[in-house]
Protein 1
Amino acid sequence: MKQALLALLLLATAGCSSAYYAAMEKVGFEKRDILESRVEDARDAQLKSQQEFKDALTQLSQMIGFHGGDLQAKYEALSAQYDESKAAADEVSARINKVETVAFDLFAEWEDELKQYQNAQLRADSRQKLIATKRQFDALVRTMRKAERKMPPVLRALHDNVLYLKHNLNAKAIGALTGEFNGLQSDINNLVRDMDQAIAESNQFIQSIKQN
């Protein structure tokens, strides 16, 4: 079993899609199963990213309200949280890309296999399910991408704050960031709200895939 899983991993890493799909089918995973799994992964990545951005906001808030003590330790915690937020955002983008890749392949295969039907009624029913699934998927990806587009501006603002504190680690510098905090807080709250919508739509899509 371990050798089979390793072989699948190597195929996936090599980027050989057709061989990867063929290997997955041999162990009982069709493209729709892979799509379901990848939507789940994208959803989980967004959940993690949400928390990382919230934690970064908390770290910045604590630093702005910090009086006395070890400023360096607080700065290092904020800097580390920025790195975690950046990594989580990159993972979200990577997961969405993987979702789109397998969906494109699944829909292309589905469309092609419609030609194989001899029964016109079954073909028509399958075509309607394909259209509905594609419509729901397109809406899901739009929502995911909308949230994704809001991550870079938040990361840039966080990075600016971290970089400013790196070279100006004193009470005056911390005070100067107070005005920036409210705007960043609003941006992160908007991002979290958009991610909530994407996560909810992901769950709906997963349930729809399971029922079809």
Note: The mean pLDDT is 89.
Protein 2
Amino acid sequence: MFKGPVGLIPALDVDSIDDMLRLVEKTANVPGIAGYKLGLTGTLPNGLPAAILALRKITDLPVIYDHQKAGPDMPDMAQKFAKLCKGAGANALILFPVAGPQAVRSFVGETVRQGLIPVVGGHIPVPDYCISGGGFMIDDVLERIMAIANEAGAHHFVLPANDAEAIRRHVDWMARTVNNPVAFLTGFGTLGGDVGTAFRAASACLVKFAIVGRAVSTNKSPGDAARKFIEEMMRVA
């Protein structure tokens, strides 16, 4: 579904549908744009179906819906959530099923059953997320989630881009364990991720994408900013 082996997924975290459409219009024809990530700012004002319908008038690229974050919920909500997203026209869902093993199995499994792609994560690139940094999550939360998600049918995983050692460890595991693994790297720019460093660390994964928000969306020329990102990714991939 996602055109690879390397590509850019702009995050449409802007203030209105009009801003979202302008961003897509300025980037959709840039070679290397593989899809778009749609989040709460694009959906809460008008609803997920209306937001995707508006996008479909100007692009047929895959749309990843990021509920920010879906999955830390009761397992029996998984079927309802995945079915609603399928009906709205999403192609893939970002899932952070940190509520436990059954939540992982339910949200990944129901997403697969609806014919959508689960893009599974569990670590937000902020310094106080895990216990070692003063946060609440165990330090190996992502490893545990990825292992169960893979058993439930996930092949696409989202990794924080600001920790090269962790990226290398995760993609090495993916290359050994996952059939046709796909890595999505996120957290560039102000969140500490560097494109060259992150993509070199992810070299063991043959198919990989960058999810980029403000560095593209707030640039005066989003298309040029996207091209610059893609060129840098291509140089090191």
Note: The mean pLDDT is 92.
Protein 3
Amino acid sequence: MTRIAVLSDIHGNLHALEAVAGEIRRLRPDAVLIAGDLVLNGPNPGGCIDALRVLESEGALIVSGNTDIAVGDFDYGSAYPQYQDGIPETVRAAAEWAHDELNDDQLDWLRRLPAERRMRAADDTLVLVVHASPGSQTRGFDQALDANVIFERAAMTDARVICVGHTHVPEVRDLGFKVIVNGGSVGYVFDGDPTASWAMLDIHEGNVTAEIKRTAFDALSVANAISERGLPGDVYRAATVRTGKLVR
């Protein structure tokens, strides 16, 4: 059997990341997959990168998310194709602040992250980790998507298991020929539960099972740190962390 921890969307929330990392080290899975969106919005982007690099040194596979492109290179058209009439100032200010908080070495690491990584389980099952969906960092597996679109996006890879984030809502979706594992969000969840959300995946003789995990962290402390920063939109970011619901 191969056991894999799947986490995503840390969003600069070091308290949440440290809590989840501690739980993962206690459970000792065979692999750790981290599906991007690592630094934007939260109060400690540099600390998150340092902690992620430790996980990487321990074997974690890490990919880039769309907001990592915004922070690393200010390529807003690539990071946010939905904004056809210009990037909101709230997004631009947060990306520029996070960029300035990172040193050159941290920025270089963020920019070097691949868009996708793959691994083989012990039974040779192919597992893909990508931020949103195969071939895309912005087109996710949203719960409201038409089933035909879900199947079309899932078919863009030969991987039996697709590990993603992006939606900030945890979900395990078994399509029969594929299993989509969305761990939700470690640091910026939208499902109404203000805890860190991630997933544990087991693969054994072709069978795939996954469980959503929740890990408590000091959400109020993180929300207060965001509020004290005072960037445009921080009042809404703080409320999102505090409540576990998207506030905007």
Note: The radius of gyration is 17 Å.
